[in-house]
Write a structure and sequence with these properties.
The complex is a heterotetramer of chains A (about 230), B (about 220), C (about 130) and D (about 250). Chain B is of the alpha/beta class and about 220 residues long. Chain B has ten helices and nine strands. The chains are: A mainly alpha (about 230), B alpha/beta (about 220), C mainly alpha (about 130), D alpha/beta (about 250). At the B-D interface, α8 of B face α3 and α4 of D.
C-alpha cells in the first residue's frame, strides 16, 4: 500500500511529467549521439582495395543470365524465408515510432509545454495502432517462449527489454480507457515511457541506429547500396 | 582460396536435359566464400531452374544440399543416405570437389555448375583476383612477392619485355606490367640484385597430376 | 603425435586481446536483438535438423559473447566448450545473414584466435 | 598473323646466297621444339638466330591461341649458348655436332622502366648473346642516354649493337606508332617535321631522317651497325642503303 501511495503521490506525478521527461529525452538524444559517434569513430572509411581498373567484361566466362527467366528475387531475401516474422516486425517498429509521435494527447501536451505541435492522427487510428502493436508484441513474446531456436538464445534480459518496450503502450492504452486507477496508470505510463527512452541508446534497443548503420553504411555482403565504411 | 563462378544457365540446363531427378550439392568451403557455390547459390540456382522448367512444362525434381567441403570424403559421406534417390548429381564445388564427388558415386552422372577460375584473394565482397597458378615452384621470394607466372601475360621470368607501355602490359592498357611492378618493389627494397641474376628455365611441376605427402606423414604412407 | 600442451589459461592475456577489438565486438554483441533471423542462412543449421546450436547468433553469443561477459575470466573447461562451438559447429564460410549487418564470422574468428592463443584448438585425437 | 616459318624462309635465303637472321619466338614453341629447330636450321647453313619473347598471341588474328612461353627469351639465349659452347641440350644430353650459332636478341631502350633497360641488356649479355637489335629508334635523346649508360657499364664491348632504323612512310604511320604500338617512342617533333615536309614529300623526308640517324650511328661509340627495318617498304631498302652511304656491303668472314 505504501508503494501504491507513493506511485499515486502528487510528487511522483509532477516529477514524471516534468523533469523526468526532459531528462529521459536528453539521455535518449545525447546517448544516441554518443553511441553513433562512437560507431563512426571505430569504423573507418573504406578504401578501394581493387586495382584501378577492373575487367570490363562481367567475368572471364561471362555468365550472362539474359536467357534466364526472372525469378522473384524477394524469395531469397529474409522476407522470403520468414514472411510473417518480417511483416509483424515491420508493423511493430513502424507503429512504435509513429503512434506516439502523432498521438493527439501527446501533441496537446507538447503544445501546452512549448506552444508547438505536430499534426495528429484521429484518436481512433492510434487506438487501433496500439492494439495492433500489442498483438505484435504478444507475437514476439510467444515466439520467444515457444520456438526452440529463439528460446535457445533468450535470457531474462530479453524479456526485460520486451517489457520496457511494450509497457508504455499497454499502460497508455489502459489509462486512455481508464481501466484500473487512471492516475496510477498514467504515472506508470509516463515512467515506463521515460524508461524506454532512456534505455534505448544503451541496450539492444540501440539496434534502431545500428540497423541503418549496419545495412547502409558498413560494407558487408548484405549492404544495401555500396556502403562506405569498414570496421 | 579457390575462386569459382557459376556456369551460364544454358549450359547447366543442357547438361541436365536427360535427367528428371537432380540433386544439386553445394560446398561450404572456398566456393561459398566467393559467393559461387554455397547454400544460398544452391537455392538460387534451383529456383532459377525450377522456373525455367515450369515455363517450358518440363517435369523435373531438383533438390539441394550443402556439405561442409566436397574435397573431403568425411563430409561427402553425409550424402550416403541422400544421393541414392536421384538419377544425377550436380556439384557447385570447385573442380576438385566435383571430381571427388564423382569418385564417391561412380555410378551416377555428376555435372559441374561452376567454372573453377583461380586460386585468388578477396579484393572486396564480390571481387576476386587470381593470384596463383599452382606452378609448383614458387619464385615470389625473388620477385618481390609479385607472381610473374600469374601476372605476366607471357609468364616471363626475366622481364620486363620490350612491350611494356608506361607501366602497362602490351596486351592491354588496363593491366599493369607485372615486371614493372616487380622492378619498382624491389627497387624500393633495394633488392634489384635479385632480378639481375638470370633465372633458369622453370621446372614446371603442374604438368602431371601431383600428390603431396607432408613430411611428418611420410612414414605413415610410404 | 602432437600432444596438446596443457597450459594455464592466461586470463590477463585474454583480457588484453579483448581490449584490442573491444569496440566492434561489444557493439555487435550489444545490438543483437536475439531475433534468430540468421538461423536459416547457416547451412549447418539446415543440415542438422535445425538444431539451434548451429545458429550463427547462438554460436557467437556462446563463444566470444561468453568470454566478454566474463571479461576474459574463463577457465580451460569453458574455452574447451567454446572450441567445440567455433571449430566444430562453424566452418567460417562467412555467409551468415544478419538483419543488422553484424559481422558474425569475424566474431567467431576472433574467438578462435583467443582459444588458439591459449593452446585450445582442435587436435588430432578428435 | 600466321607467316611462313622463319627457318623455312631462311633456308630459301641461304639458297639465294644471302645470310639470313633466323628469328625464334618463345610464344610458339616449347624448349624441345626450339632446340630441335636450332639443330635443323644449323644443318641447313643458317648461322644467326634472333631470340625473342614474341608478341603476345592476343595481337593478330588468333587471339584464342594458347601461348607456349615455356621459357623466356633470356632463357632461350642461355639454352642456345649452352648448346653451342658446352655441346649440351638443356636437358643435359650431349650434342655431337653442336650448332655454331651467332646468337642475337632484342633490346628496347624505350620501354619503362628506362633506367632498367641497360641492366636487362646486361642480363642478356650474361646469358650469352652476341648481337643485339634495338627497337625502332625515333627518340634519339633516350637512345643516346641508353648507349651512354651501356658504355659506362662496359656492355657494348661485349656485344654488337645494331641500332634499329625504320623510315616513316607517312604522318599516319608515325601517329599510329606513337599511339598504338607498345614499347615505341615517337616524339612529337618528328611528326611535326614530317608534316612540315609538305604534300608528296613526307616519304622522302622520312628516308632523310633515317639517313641522318644512320650517319649519327656510324660515329656513335658502341653501335656496331644498323638494323634497317623498312616495314612494308622492303623494295626501298637498296635506295635507302645507298642514300645512307652504307653500300657496298662489307665482307664478313
Amino acid at each position: 500500500m505504501e508503494i501504491l501511495n507513493l506511485i499515486t503521490s502528487d510528487l511522483l506525478y509532477d516529477l514524471a511529467r516534468g523533469p523526468l521527461v526532459w531528462i529521459s529525452f536528453l539521455i535518449l538524444i545525447l546517448g544516441t549521439i554518443y553511441r553513433t559517434v562512437k560507431l563512426f569513430s571505430f569504423t573507418r572509411k573504406k578504401k578501394n582495395a581493387w586495382p584501378v581498373s577492373l575487367p570490363k567484361k562481367k567475368a572471364p566466362d561471362g555468365d550472362t543470365d539474359k536467357s534466364a527467366p526472372l525469378i522473384p528475387k524477394w524469395k531469397f531475401t529474409v522476407f522470403g524465408a520468414h514472411p510473417v516474422m518480417i511483416s509483424v516486425s515491420t508493423v511493430f517498429h513502424v507503429i512504435l515510432f509513429i503512434a506516439p509521435i502523432f498521438l493527439l494527447a501527446h501533441n496537446i501536451m507538447l503544445d501546452e509545454a512549448v506552444g508547438f505541435s505536430l499534426c495528429s492522427f484521429p484518436e481512433k487510428v492510434t487506438d487501433y495502432m496500439t492494439i495492433v502493436f500489442l498483438v505484435c508484441g504478444l507475437f514476439f513474446l510467444l515466439r520467444r517462449i515457444f520456438i526452440a531456436r529463439v528460446r535457445a538464445i533468450s535470457s531474462v534480459y530479453d524479456y526485460i527489454i520486451w517489457c520496457i518496450t511494450v509497457a508504455p503502450f499497454l499502460t497508455g492504452f489502459l489509462s486512455y480507457y481508464q481501466v484500473f486507477d487512471y492516475k496510477t496508470m498514467i504515472i506508470l505510463h509516463m515512467l515506463s515511457g521515460e524508461l524506454m527512452l532512456a534505455a534505448a541508446p544503451f541496450t539492444k534497443i540501440f539496434h534502431m541506429v545500428f540497423f541503418f548503420f549496419g545495412r547502409f553504411v558498413l560494407v558487408t555482403q548484405h549492404t544495401i547500396g555500396k556502403g562506405s565504411r569498414t570496421w | 582460396m579457390v575462386k569459382g563462378q557459376r556456369k551460364p544457365i544454358d549450359e547447366i540446363t543442357g547438361a541436365l536435359e536427360k535427367y528428371s531427378n537432380v540433386l544439386n550439392i553445394g560446398c561450404g568451403g572456398c566456393v561459398s566464400v566467393c559467393l559461387a557455390g554455397g547454400q544460398k547459390e544452391v537455392n538460387l540456382l534451383n529456383a532459377e531452374l525450377e522456373s525455367i522448367y515450369k515455363q517450358n512444362n518440363i517435369s523435373k525434381k531438383i533438390e539441394g544440399f550443402t556439405v561442409e567441403r566436397q574435397c573431403n570424403m568425411q563430409y561427402l559421406d553425409e550424402l550416403d543416405d541422400i544421393a541414392g534417390g536421384y538419377d544425377c548429381l550436380m556439384s557447385m564445388a570447385c573442380g576438385a570437389g566435383v571430381q571427388y564427388l564423382a569418385e564417391k558415386f561412380p555410378g551416377k552422372p555428376v555435372f559441374p555448375a561452376i567454372n573453377t577460375v583461380a586460386i585468388g584473394i578477396d579484393r572486396e565482397i564480390g571481387i576476386y583476383e587470381e593470384k596463383c597458378r599452382a606452378c609448383g615452384e614458387c619464385v615470389l621470394g625473388y620477385t618481390g612477392g609479385i607472381c610473374p607466372v600469374t601476372r605476366c601475360a607471357k609468364g616471363l621470368f626475366n622481364g620486363p619485355c620490350g612491350g611494356t607501355n608506361k607501366g602497362k602490359c602490351e596486351i592491354s592498357n588496363d593491366i599493369s606490367c607485372a615486371w614493372q611492378d616487380i622492378y619498382e618493389r624491389l627497387k624500393g627494397q633495394n633488392r634489384l640484385d635479385d632480378i639481375l641474376k638470370i633465372k633458369e628455365p622453370m621446372e614446371w611441376k603442374n604438368q602431371t597430376q601431383r600428390t603431396i605427402i607432408q613430411e611428418p606423414y611420410m612414414k605413415r604412407y610410404t | 603425435m602432437n600432444e596438446q600442451k596443457i597450459v594455464e589459461i592466461d586470463t590477463v592475456k585474454i583480457k588484453k586481446r579483448l581490449k584490442q577489438r573491444k569496440a566492434k565486438m561489444k557493439m555487435s554483441l550489444s545490438v543483437c536483438a536475439r531475433c534468430t533471423l540468421c538461423a536459416d542462412s547457416c547451412f549447418l543449421f539446415n543440415n542438422n535438423n535445425k538444431d539451434p546450436k548451429y545458429m550463427p547468433s547462438y554460436k557467437f553469443i556462446n563463444s566470444i559473447g561468453r568470454i566478454y561477459k566474463r571479461r576474459g575470466k574463463v577457465d580451460r573447461a569453458a574455452l574447451e566448450k567454446i572450441r567445440e562451438i567455433v571449430w566444430k559447429d562453424c566452418v567460417l564460410c562467412t555467409r551468415c545473414y544478419c538483419p543488422f549487418g553484424i559481422d558474425i564470422p569475424d566474431m567467431i574468428a576472433f574467438a578462435r584466435s583467443i582459444c588458439r592463443e591459449q593452446g585450445v584448438y582442435p587436435t588430432f585425437e578428435d | 598473323m600466321v607467316r611462313m616459318a622463319s627457318w623455312a624462309a631462311s633456308i630459301i635465303l641461304v639458297q639465294e646466297g644471302l645470310e639470313p637472321n633466323f628469328q625464334m619466338v618463345c610464344r610458339d614453341r616449347n624448349r624441345l621444339a626450339m632446340q630441335s629447330d636450332i639443330m635443323g636450321a644449323y644443318a641447313h647453313g643458317i648461322k644467326n638466330v634472333l631470340c625473342l619473347s614474341g608478341d603476345h598471341q592476343q595481337f593478330g588474328d588468333h587471339p584464342q591461341a594458347k601461348g607456349v612461353f615455356d621459357i623466356d627469351s633470356m632463357q632461350l639465349i642461355s639454352v642456345i649458348k649452352n648448346m653451342r659452347d658446352e655441346g649440351k641440350f638443356q636437358g643435359g644430353a650431349v650434342i655431337h655436332e653442336p650448332p655454331k650459332m651467332f646468337i642475337g636478341a632484342a633490346s628496347n631502350p624505350f620501354a619503362e622502366p628506362l633506367e632498367w633497360r641497360a641492366h636487362r641488356l646486361a642480363k642478356k649479355i650474361e646469358a650469352g648473346v652476341d648481337f643485339v637489335q634495338t627497337q625502332c629508334i625515333y627518340n634519339m635523346d633516350i637512345f643516346r642516354e641508353f648507349v651512354k649508360q651501356a658504355n659506362d657499364m662496359g656492355l657494348l664491348e661485349k656485344v654488337y649493337l645494331l641500332a634499329g632504323v625504320t623510315p616513316m612512310k607517312s604522318v599516319g604511320m608515325a601517329k599510329y606508332m606513337q599511339a598504338k604500338v607498345p614499347g615505341m617512342d615517337v616524339p612529337d617533333d618528328l611528326i611535326k617535321r614530317l608534316r612540315g615536309a609538305g604534300k608528296g614529300k613526307v616519304a622522302d623526308e622520312g628516308i632523310k631522317i633515317a639517313c641522318e640517324q644512320i650517319e649519327e650511328f656510324k660515329e656513335m661509340k658502341g653501335v656496331a651497325g644498323v638494323h634497317l627495318m623498312a616495314i612494308e617498304w622492303e623494295h626501298k631498302v637498296p635506295e635507302i642503303a645507298e642514300r645512307a652511304k652504307v653500300l657496298p656491303r662489307p665482307k664478313v668472314e
